[in-house]
């Protein structure tokens, strides 16, 4: 529970509410009760100063007169406490009664209990010592202050309790909402972990959780596509490796049985090696695709000229094309790109190879480097029979071979590798019928 | 007789390497792990080393190579590896290897590359005028003559011929040509190199005798005035 971020957020939220409530209470309390107390003190000190003046001006008689006037002036008469007491504590004048405890130092404001008009009350008062040893007591009954204090305290208590309750339930709600959203994601990931790879997080709204869900879904799409690829490859391997391997096996078997003839043995061994070589090259291709798709090599990219590579490959294949009765031409201007020279060359070589192989009847193959909307592209176009529309989207699949090409050499991995190389460079392989013929172009992102 | 050290842990491959290299005229010694190989390297001077990339024990092939190079030992090294990726090749070359070959390999390819390495020091690498029998090539003027007759070559054909002449009498494989002349490292699948060679041949050998460019079955090509490299040899 303590490790739960939802719990911690909820507790943090509760503590924050409680703390702000406490701060608010202090401010309200000081602003009401505190201000009222202060004004009482001010009034006491004003009256005390006034009476002290009367004492100085009129002596005892003046003071007693003034005390009476003070008590009967109809201002604050309900709460005023004024009196003159002698050193032994006898009340000489005013409405003061008996009091508990000692009188405070002269001029010092204090709280205390005393009788007012014969009723015991709590008071705030001063006891000024006069020159003749008597003491002048000026104070206030605190009944009003206590009433205000009670009201304010009760209000604060109630609002505090309510807000803490609200904070608690709010935190609970907050936590349960958070947990529900995370729980949905967790349930989906648990289903996926259990093998249900096609399940996806239901994305609602556009908040952080929705974005996280989106990201996870995108990741899952990619994983599923890769898994699908792996499944397809392993099926294909099972199929495509079995054929040459069983051929090798039967060949060796036959060779053993007819081992009397050394010539036959040599010929069989040679054919067996050829078959094994084709299996190895198939393996190499599959590993190459896997390595490309892992994207590791993108780290070794360098600045290249696409046209220079295209020119080199055209030149390399030109003679071989001519032997097949095909004119291989190159056109294009220097085009900078970041990439891997050998990989781009081998992808282009593969496309040229295909164009020569499948577009033989067209007698012409063009290699072009061009820039469309700022995006560099490397295109190979032949003028042969093209690809049947039904096969168009399948030809980049691993091991896929158009029916009428099964008699030609190849293993159906060429375009898969070209696709992987193009994608490693952030581009897309665009295949389209070119009437007549077929065009494959690697379109790279804008430099 | 050039001597060659083979460091390879797999018995089958080691025997195959040793017998192949011996048949080609090398004095061969073999070691099965990095530590023993390292000792051997420091005891004796070798003309060429064939080194397996993955070895049991403390040091693997690249480790041995790095130690050699840091000792200042510049013996040519061919790395053999089952790790077939361009990355690995680049790593091997960066660590100081001179060549890199992936397993499974064809013996003729290995021999061609080993020979290339062991002869490296004796090449007429910097010579400006190359001569094999009556064939002459001037690198500065880009002029090629045979029996005094000028032969016109395309720039790439010229470089192909130059490469063959600099490796006179030595088998060069198709991949070596693609690497050495075109400077690309990939397997072209089709017979592009053969077609290029046959074009070159039609210009160099067609109207003259003896033929200088010979095909070595299952291996590659060799340029030599000696008729022992004729079609029936090897």
Write up this protein.
The complex is a heterodimer of chains A (447) and B (234). Chain A is an alpha+beta fold. Chain A contains seven helices and 13 strands. Chain A has a six-stranded antiparallel beta sheet with strand order 2-1-6-5-4-3. Chain A has a five-stranded mixed beta sheet with strand order 8-10-11-13-12. In chain A, a hairpin with a 4-residue loop joins strand 12 and strand 13 (438-443). In chain A, helix 3 runs antiparallel to helix 4 and helix 5 (306-323) runs parallel beside helix 6 (341-358). Helices cover 38% and strands 21% of the residues of chain B. In chain B, helix 6 (155-166) packs across helix 7. Classes of the chains: A alpha+beta (447), B alpha/beta (234). The interface between A and B is medium-sized, with 26 and 20 residues.
Identify the overall geometry of chain B. elongated
* Strand content range of chain A: 15-25%
Mean pLDDT of chain B: 85
Number of discrete helical segments of chain A: 7
Quaternary state of this entry equals heterodimer
Q: What's the β-strand tally of chain A?
A: 13
Major sheet of chain B, described briefly? 5 strands, parallel
**SS-based class of chain B:** alpha/beta
User: Which range does the strand content of chain B fall in?
Assistant: 15-25%
Describe the strand arrangement of the main beta sheet of chain B, using strand numbers: 2-1-3-4-5
Uncertain regions spanning at least 5 consecutive residues of chain B: 230-234
